[in-house]
Structure formats: C-alpha cells, structure tokens
Amino acid sequence: MTQLTRKQRDFQARESLILDVSAELFEQFGYFGLSMDRIAQAVEYSKGTIYQHFQSKEEVLCALCARSMRVQQQMFQKATQFVGHPREKMCAILVAHQLYTHLYAREFNHVQMIKTASIRQKIPESSQQALAEIEDQCLQRIVNIVAEAIECQDLVLEDMTPQELIFGLWSIAQGSSVIMLSDTPLEEMGIEQPDLVIRAHCMRLLDVYGWQPLSHQWDYEQTYHRIETELFIEELSRFTSGDQHD
Amino acid sequence: MTQLTRKQRDFQARESLILDVSAELFEQFGYFGLSMDRIAQAVEYSKGTIYQHFQSKEEVLCALCARSMRVQQQMFQKATQFVGHPREKMCAILVAHQLYTHLYAREFNHVQMIKTASIRQKIPESSQQALAEIEDQCLQRIVNIVAEAIECQDLVLEDMTPQELIFGLWSIAQGSSVIMLSDTPLEEMGIEQPDLVIRAHCMRLLDVYGWQPLSHQWDYEQTYHRIETELFIEELSRFTSGDQHD
DNA sequence: TCATTTTTTGACGATTCGTCACTTTTTGAC
DNA sequence: GTCAAAAAGTGACGAATCGTCAAAAAATGA
C-alpha cells in the first residue's frame, strides 16, 4: 500500500472517529439534533478542526450516507456471488435491499432526504457525485445479473429493455421501503409481512416477463432460505435481534 | 354554511394569504430558504402575527403539504369517476398519481421529507394526523376500485388480499416517482419515458393477477387517451407547458 | 535554543427560531 | 363622542447554530 506519514495516519484516524461519533449522534438525535458543536464536543476537538475534515454539516452527513451505501454495495456484491441461476441472484439482490433498508433505516431515510431538491442545494457537487457513483455501482451489479440471464437465454425480453425491467424492480423495492419506513400503519391495513408481499410481487413480475426458471418450476422458498442462511445469516440475526429490544 | 364574523373571515383570508406566499417562497427557495421572517416580510405582517396562525415553520410546511395532498385526493376522486371498467379506473389513478408528482414535485418531495423520522420529531402529532387522514382518503379511493372489481368478478384474488395488491401498486408508483424526482439520470440509462415504462409494469402486474379485461383483450391505449383527454386535459397541459419554460 | 511553519482553538458575526412585554386598534357601554 | 377594557399586532430579544478567522499552541528543524 501507499506509505503514509504518521500525520496522515493520525488525520485519517480522526476522520474515522468523527464519522463514528457522528453516526451515533445522528442515530440518537436525528438530522436536526446533530450539530457541529455537538460533534466537536463529543470527539473532544474544536469545531475548527472538524471543519478541516468536512466543509459543512451536510458533508459529514453525506459521508455517513456514503458509508452506509458502501455497505449496501457490498451486500449486493455478496448477492451476485450466490451460486445458482441468475434469477436466484436477483432474488438475493432483493433480499439484500430489504435487509439493508431495515438495518440502516435512518441512513436510508437520510439518503432519501439528500436526494430532495431542497437539501441538494446545500451539498457540494462533488459529494453528490461521490454518492451517485456508489449508487451506480449498486445498479451495475443488477445490470450484470440481467445481462447474464439474457446471455444464457433464461431471459428473453421482447418489448422492453433490460434497463426498463430494472427500473420497475428498483421502483417497487425502493417504494416499498420508503412506505414501510414512514410508519404507515401497514399492519392495521392487514399487511403483516410487507417484505414477503413485495417479494411475491417481484416474483410475479419476473414470471410475467418469462425469466426462467419460472416460479412454478422451481422451489424459490428453498432459494430464499439458502440466501438467508448462506449469504446474510449475520445481517439477518442483527435485524431480528435489533427488532426485539426496540 | 356557517355564518362567520367579519373577523373570522379576515383571519381565514390572511391564513390563505400566508399559505399562498409561503408556497411561492418554498417553490423559489426550497425548505431552507423559507424562513418565518421572510414570510412575515412578504405578507407585510409581523412574525408574531404569523405565529398566531401556525405554531412553527414546520406547521406552515405541513399546511402546504396538506394543500397539495388535497389536490391529489381530488385528482383521485376524478379518476374514480371515469366511466369504464374498474381496471380502467385503476389506470386513471395511476395517471393521476404521475401527473400529481410532476405538477407538485416540490411538495411531493417535501411530503417525503416530512415522513422521515428526523423531521417528524419537529412536527406536532396533530399535523401528522391531518396528513395521514388525507393520505388515507386517497388510499380509500383505490380500495374502493379494487372492491368494485372483485364485486363484479373482474378480479378474483387467490393467494393475495386486496390490500396486498394495492401495496404493490402503491410501492411501484411511489418508488418510481421518488427515483424520477431525485434527478437520477434515467435518460442516460436509456429510459426515455419513465412514466410509460411504469405504466407498462403496472399493466403486466394487473394482467398476471388476472384483472379483467386483460391487456391483450382491450385497447388500453385508447383508455389512457380517454383518461388524458376526458379527465386531466387541463393538468396535462399545465405539465407540458411547465416543462417548456423550465 | 529559537524562528518558522503547521495545527488547533474558540470567540465572533450572521442567521433564524420562537417568545413576550409593549403598542396599537377595536369594541361597546355610557 | 368619550373612554376604559379587550383583542390584535409588533418587533426586539434570548437561544441555538452555522461557518470563519485571527490568535494561540504545538511541531519542526536549522
């Protein structure tokens, strides 16, 4: 690796510290409860020093977003490594997305906020670029899976491009997460397990586009079980245990 | 109607004025550019007077949200009055939703923000209740259409409840709008007309659940054309003209 | 050891929030 | 028309937070 001076290492270590502390504060107090003064106090450096690392409060929060999006990207990466049909990998992506939005609910919400026109004004172009890049990488994983499916003829799209198919799946996954995290009373509406409902919808959609193997030809229950145990057992346990003492 | 005193009428008129002005300022400067002082200056009343109407800045913005959501609710209402099959009415709902999110992009974004945990903390329970109620009414319109379809046996749901079906459609509509308004470069991705893509996905989904008439049995192009000309001709022209000088 | 460079600090001006003591206007009894 | 009580309106104020910058402290190395 590149050899860094002690100073540079110290600088990076402090940056990590700032982010760790900020993440905790953000988790605890939310967007408006997080102030630069509070961060400075918590890391025991002065405000000026914080501003050597981040130009503004928004940049700190962007860095937090980038962090959690990198986690998502890694989960997607793991999903693509699932051993099985491309369609099974796509299922793994969906599971990854759902797990991610539950494990990083606050950050997911904050990413949504950042995409808002009002807040975007406050964020330097460069930070936005960085986030867009990570999101792009996530999307690229999905594109690759679809490409793989088309290549091995599991999927033959007729009046639709791969991008358009992905846009649909992405919309439903994204939309359902937004709805679930906005404390809409889904249980009251009679929806006990929204994640499973969304899975069902996605499966139907993939069926209708003829992505092999179709759901009546293949035991996807088994697939989902394998995804959960082989890929995301740790994340899953964190999610369910997080549920309990919440 | 109830007879109001001159004072009460004046009071209401001023409240409208405040909201009108705030809407303009919000449109122009966004969430953070909108301040109570600026509102006060613009309406030519003092800040204290504004605070007689709204307890906080967030309440002003909630009122703006409520306003735009009522517009959506009315558009949904219009959609339910479309003369045709229940499924055609459902198409009209989708068109209404898409038109709404484009015509009230800022407000739609802001509603998203308000649903965020961070911001919800700043909003009194009562205001949130009011918004939830309007959203509920919107959802109720959709529930009614599905109920109608089931009643006349256009739709026979087997392993899915009406609420679950709606949740899926709602997710895809909501998710796609969020993605579109977050300046994701969809065109670069090769998606020229995202709204039409989403319509296609929804149609496929309704087909796969067997909602009659299926899309190969009925000319839905014609239906969409009727929806646009019979119901939303005015909104549509505002949308396209708004596009031009933007 | 000490002058120079680098790093850190926190006081500061600016902005915005929501409040409240004071001023102005309105009301209605005489 | 007058005047005192009630209602409505005002904007200066304290508090919180932002981002800056001159001065202090620490590190460097001749």
Question: How would you portray this structure in words?
Answer:
2 copies of one chain form a homodimer. Chain A is elongated. The model of chain A has no long low-confidence stretch (mean pLDDT 93). Chain A has 12 helices and no strands. Chain A has 246 residues and is mostly helical. In chain A, helix 9 packs antiparallel against helix 10 (194-208). Chain A has helices spanning 6-33, 36-43, 47-53, 57-80, 86-103, 105-114, 117-120, 125-151, 162-181, 194-208, 220-231, 233-244. At the A-B interface, helix 1, helix 6, helix 7, helix 9 and helix 10 of A face helix 1, helix 6, helix 7, helix 9 and helix 10 of B. Chain A binds a DNA duplex (30 and 30 nucleotides) through residues 7, 35-37, 40, 45-49, 51-52, 55-57.
Offer a quick outline of the entry.
In chain A, 75% of the residues lie in helices and 0% in strands. By secondary structure, chain A is mostly helical.
Attribute tags:
homodimer; 246 residues; mainly alpha; 12 helices; elongated; DNA-binding
* Element-level helix/strand string of chain A: HHHHHHHHHHHH
Largest sheet of chain A: none
Helix content of chain A: over 70%
The quaternary state of the protein chains shown equals homodimer
Distance between the termini of chain A: 42 Å
Largest interface: A-B, 53 and 53 residues
Q: Low-confidence stretches of chain A at least 5 residues in length (pLDDT < 50)? A: none
Number of helices of chain A: 12
Radius of gyration of chain A, CA atoms, in whole angstroms: 20 Å
The count of DSSP E runs of length 2 or more, i.e. the number of strands of chain A, is 0
Backbone shape of chain A:
elongated
| Beta-strand percentage range of chain A | under 5%
- Structural class, from helix and strand content of chain A? mainly alpha
Mean pLDDT of chain A, nearest integer? Answer: 93
